[in-house]
Design goal:
Strand content: 5-15%
CATH class of one domain: Alpha Beta
Shape: rod-shaped
Strand order of the largest sheet: 3-7-5-6-4
Number of strands: 9
Distance between the termini: 89 Å
Number of helices: 13
Structural class: alpha/beta
Largest sheet: 5 strands, mixed
């Protein structure tokens, strides 16, 4: 039930963004709502704020083949450009496929929308169709926050999802670019990306991402490795001893016949002499202090 209610909210979100335009008076004093019409395909231009940046060539070819057979059944939502022609608000994928199908004109529906509303409409339309990859979605959410004054709560309300869903998507933007590229190319999943975030450093994330791809790790295995890397990074580092200190340890070990460790700090420190029995301890005491 929860999932279906979210889907309904998402649908209502797009309707809310695209209120019915005021009816235009027709000749004779009557009024009618604006309707779709055919526009030359060259008069349409891509949305400058299109959240989607990747279009699958094979999927576009399939859609183009369908358009050749039955045409475009759903109008492309556009808004008028200041100079001439129309800017696509929702339906750029269909427009691209129509070009491949060599269509000369396509059905359009014109709405007068602000920059903010046009971007929001494009985002919601893509989410409804599940056309965005996880990083495109995250970047779109971030733009709503940075450029349009939204909060995580208002973005969640706009798209009909939980706030935690928005927050988890935004966290992906903290990944190194090389890892982001692997998710966008589908070498890794969104789940892998979230798991890698727990590794801590960018270097650790990149290293684990390479291994996850090469070895085919599951999300759970990636998460386990990332947590282990984070714990290892937090462990206190043992300072490597200088060559002089190591040489001194070796000479003392040979001289005393037992393992000797030297702790040195700027010329000061202490010796740790090991013994395995009381007899050996007596032998060492004789060396240090002479026989009683």
């Amino acid at each position: 039930m929860a999932d279906s209610s979210k889907r309904r909210a998402l649908g209502r979100g797009l309707d809310a963004l695209l209120p019915t335009a005021p009816a235009k008076p027709a000749e004779g004093g009557s009024s009618e709502a604006p309707t779709a019409f055919f526009a030359p395909i060259e008069e349409l231009h891509p949305n400058r704020q299109q959240p989607r940046t990747r279009f699958d060539d094979e999927a576009l070819d399939e859609l183009a083949a369908s358009l050749k057979e039955i045409g475009m059944l759903e109008p492309i939502l556009v808004r008028r450009r200041a100079r001439s022609g129309y800017e696509i608000v929702a339906g750029e994928r269909r427009w691209r496929a129509a070009q491949r199908a060599a269509l000369r004109e396509v059905p359009v529906f014109v709405r007068e929308l602000s920059e903010e509303k046009a971007f929001e409409a494009a985002l919601v339309e893509n989410l409804q169709r599940e056309d965005l990859n996880p990083l495109e979605t995250a970047r779109a959410y971030q733009r709503l926050l940075d450029e349009h004054g939204h909060t995580a709560e208002s973005v969640a309300k706009l798209i009909g999802k939980d706030r935690s869903t928005v927050a988890n998507a935004l966290r992906l933007l903290k990944l190194p670019e090389s890892v982001i590229d692997r998710i966008e190319s589908r070498e890794l999943s969104e789940g892998h990306g979230r798991a890698l975030l727990s590794a801590g450093s960018a270097a650790a994330m990149e290293k684990l991402a390479r291994e996850a791809v090469a070895k085919g790790w599951s999300v759970r295995e990636t998460e386990r490795r990332a947590r282990a890397a984070a714990q290892e990074a937090k462990a206190p580092k043992v300072k490597e001893k200088s060559a002089n200190v190591r040489d001194l340890e070796e000479r003392l070990t040979r001289r005393l016949g037992t393992r000797v460790a030297v702790a040195d700090r700027k010329g000061k420190g202490h010796l740790q002499v090991s013994f395995s029995s009381y007899d050996e301890l007596d032998r060492l005491l004789d060396i240090f202090f002479g026989k009683a």
